[in-house]
Amino acid sequence: MDDILLDIKNLNIEFHDHDAPEHVVKNVNMVLKRGEILGIVGESGSGKSLTAMAIAGLLRRHDITTDGRIIFDGKELLGAKRSELRKIQGNDIGVIFQEPMTSLNPTKRIGWQVEESLRIHRPEMDKAQRYRLAVESLKSVELDEPERIYGKYPHELSGGMRQRVMIASAMICEPKLLIADEPTTALDVTIQMQIVKLLQRLNREKKTSILFISHDLSLVKRLCGRILVMHDGRVVEEGASEEIFTDPKQDYTRKLIDAIPKLEKPEI
Ligand SMILES: Nc1ncnc2c1ncn2[C@@H]1O[C@H](COP(=O)(O)OP(=O)(O)OP(=O)(O)O)[C@@H](O)[C@H]1O
Ligand SMILES: [Mg+2]
After folding, report:
1. What is the mean pLDDT of residues 133-162?
2. Residue with CA at minimum distance from ligand 1 atom 2
């Protein structure tokens, strides 16, 4: 089996919703190996989320042009049929975003939402099997009393618990890739650390590759073996975490590192 899970070649993303087209992601190349945790850092507007959305197949809109190649597990995603893409979304690729409240449906119980990908990708499963897997998934993200959480509504949980629920939903089909776009930004520091540890554990135990996007370089340093630095839609630097932190090649990267608050966060 090829040890490369994701291979992005010359990805370009353009918006056409204004008079002049806006070229926002420019010739991005990246490789993510199986089992690897890759970090993407860069200031606001550098194109991190759009790159992630392109991988997840979420940019298929009339006002957006994407070109280049996104080869995931041997399949080309940018040119894939929508039906092909739907088979992959939520099954082979799971996604979590910054604010779980906007991704969770306030009117549905947690369990029902965690089971969503099973209803789509495992239609042969009956209710009891789905329930068992959902409870297992809630447990695997270290939520106490998963049976009780199953019956709750999003507003009854804390922000950290909701983010765990999002991870449980994204992981329920055991995807090969988990894309986590600023998953901890809305949470306080202690909870951020717990989520990072949880992602580390899932990566280790389930061999899920993770694309971790964050503003927070100190978190990225702890979690990711390799880091990609984006600036103005381009990848400006790439390397092993240690290398990037000890010997950044670009002034831009050095500025990002210098901006890390001197008060260091607790060690994992
Ligand atoms: N609908 C749109 N039309 C034109 N440009 C857009 C549109 N949506 C996003 N952009 C631009 O695309 C660029 C990249 O956005 P993206 O969301 O990928 O940045 P990001 O690196 O994720 O930033 P952040 O750290 O704030 O989340 C931004 O400059 C943004 O202004
Ligand atoms: Mg973003």
Report:
1. 96
2. 15
CA distance 229 to 239: 9
Residue that is last in its domain, among 138, 156, 174 = 174
Ligand nearest to the CA of 46: 1
Q: Which tens digit of pLDDT belongs to each residue from 91-114?
A: 999 999 887 667 899 999 999 999
Residues 257, 198 share a domain:
yes
**How many other CB atoms are found less than 10 A from the CB of residue 74?**
10
What's the pLDDT at 262?
Answer: 61
Q: Which atom of ligand 1 is nearest to the CA of 17?
A: 3
CA–centroid distance, residue 46 to ligand 1 (Å): 7
The ligand that comes nearest to the alpha carbon of residue 50 is 1
| Domain interval for residue 235 | 1-92+183-261
- Of 9, 16, 1, the C-alpha closest to 30 is 9
Whether pTM exceeds 0.90:
yes
| Interval between CA 215 and ligand 2 midpoint (Å) | 9
